Amino acid sequence: MTGGHEVLRLLPGTDQRESRDRLEILTALINGPGFDPLLRADVIEVPSEHPVFGWCCRVPHCERAAHGTSDLCDTHRQQWSALGGDEADRAEFFRTAVPLQLTRAVRPGACRVVGCERMALGHKHRFCPRHDNRWRRATARAQAQGLEFDLDAWLSEEEPYPGFGVCLAACCHDGALSPLGLCPNHDQRYTREGRPGGADLDPPRY
User: Fold this and answer.
1) What's the superkingdom here (predicted)?
2) Does the predicted TM-score (pTM) go above 0.70?
3) Highest mean pLDDT among 46-55, 71-80, 87-96
4) 201 with 179: CB under 8 angstroms?
5) CB under 8 Å to 113, separation ≥6 — which residues?
6) 128, 117 Cβ separation under 8 angstroms
7) d(Cα 36, Cα 28) in Å, to the nearest integer?
8) Domain locations along the chain
C-alpha cells in the first residue's frame, strides 16, 4: 500500500502464439469434412428446405415462410388449428393442403397529404395516423349532415406534419410511425411481445 492506495500490477499479456494456434485450430475445423459448407461463407444464405435450418412452410410446394416457432406458414397454421391440430392427421393435412405462392408486402410510404413526412398506415387511403383520424372525423361530420364528402377539397386544406425520423430498430431503415420511434412493423412486434420496458405514448394521439 502506498499513500492509502493499492499498488496495481499489470497482468501478463496474451501470448500471440497461443492466439495464432487457436485461430489455426478453428480454421482447420471449419475446413474439415464434418463442417457444413453452408456456414463457411462470409454471408450465410440458408436455403428454405435446409434439413436443420429450413425456414419454409412444411406443406409440399408452399413458398411461404414458416410462422414463428411453427413449421407452417401463418395461413396453413390457422387451417391446421381449425382442424384441431391432431398429430395423427398431420400427414393427411400435408397431402390435401393447397400450397401457397410467396407474397410480398408493399411499403405504404409517406402520407398522401402533400408535404406530410409521416408514414402512412397500410390501407388504401394512405394517411398517417393523425391525418387518418382527421379524415375519419371529417367524413363522419359530412355523413351526419347528409353531405357528400369531398376528399380532394379536404386534402387541399390539410396541413402537413413533420416526420419522426427512421425506425430505431438497428436492422430497419423504414420511417418511424410515431414519436415512439418505431416503424409500423416493429411497433406491432413490440406490442405483441408485451411492450418490454413499458414505452408508450400518452396521450396516444399524435
Assistant:
1) Bacteria
2) no
3) 71-80
4) yes
5) 127, 128, 131, 155, 158, 159, 160
6) no
7) 13
8) 113-163, 164-198
